[in-house]
Backbone:
């Protein structure tokens, strides 16, 4: 196994472990890779890729918290949104090697922050605690998410901000608002599945999509989310049947079915 830093030449490899080898995912990866080349390298974003026989099997990314595309406000920290190892390569020290690379490359700041989840395969809290990440209270962060920080020196506790835009609501329609994800190719493809499912309901559902590119737009809309009549009913990528069930519940509330 070998760990390499993401560069303009191999940036696509940072996302290969996240997605199947299908055109829709490949196109999403290319879209995000171009954003890295155009904006993110120069803003201090970093990525590390684990290779086995030149095949990407794991990845991690991080950014200076001031330059991030999420609604967490802080100073002199890195934020780590995602670490992932392909299931067939777990329990081999790949995740450990990636985290050690993160620690080695973040000591120029006061620490590194992430959001973990209790009892999940993705971003499990128990994994981070092995590397001295401490739980800190982040007001407004909902279960099952918890904030964790590995401190190198004293820090100012970050804050979770809220989107400031007013949700569109209509009496005679269900309104679905998508804040487009500009970081995760898997989520981008899932949003396309969501949009395809929404089309099945015709004019009973109105779809609005926001694409936050600038920091001001991120502070207004957030970085990624789906709202249905101003609420957040989705947790993680769902199947088409699960999407239909939730949408039907909102349609039923308004007497549209």
Residues:
């Amino acid at each position: 196994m070998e760990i390499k830093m993401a560069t303009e030449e191999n940036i696509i490899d940072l996302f290969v472990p996240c997605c199947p080898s299908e055109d829709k995912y490949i196109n999403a990866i290319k879209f995000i890779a171009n954003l890295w080349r155009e904006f993110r390298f120069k803003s201090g974003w970093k990525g590390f890729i684990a290779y086995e026989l030149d095949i990407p099997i794991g990845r991690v990314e991080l950014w200076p918290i001031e330059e991030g595309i999420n609604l967490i406000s802080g100073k002199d920290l890195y934020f780590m949104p995602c670490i992932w190892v392909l299931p067939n390569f777990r329990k081999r020290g790949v995740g450990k090697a990636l985290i050690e690379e993160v620690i080695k490359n973040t000591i120029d700041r006061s620490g590194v922050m992430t959001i973990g989840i209790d009892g999940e395969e993705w971003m499990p809290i128990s994994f981070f605690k092995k590397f001295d990440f401490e739980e800190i209270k982040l007001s407004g962060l909902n279960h099952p998410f918890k904030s964790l920080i590995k401190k190198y020196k004293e820090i100012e506790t970050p804050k979770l901000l809220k989107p400031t835009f007013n949700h569109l609501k209509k009496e005679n329609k269900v309104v679905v608002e998508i804040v487009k994800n500009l970081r995760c190719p898997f989520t981008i493809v899932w949003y396309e599945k969501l949009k395809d499912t929404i089309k099945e309901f015709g004019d009973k559902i109105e779809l609005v999509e926001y694409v936050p590119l600038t920091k001001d737009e991120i502070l207004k809309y957030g970085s990624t989310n789906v709202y249905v009549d101003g609420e957040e009913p989705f947790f993680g990528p769902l199947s088409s049947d699960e999407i239909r069930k939730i949408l039907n519940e909102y349609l039923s509330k308004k007497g549209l079915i």
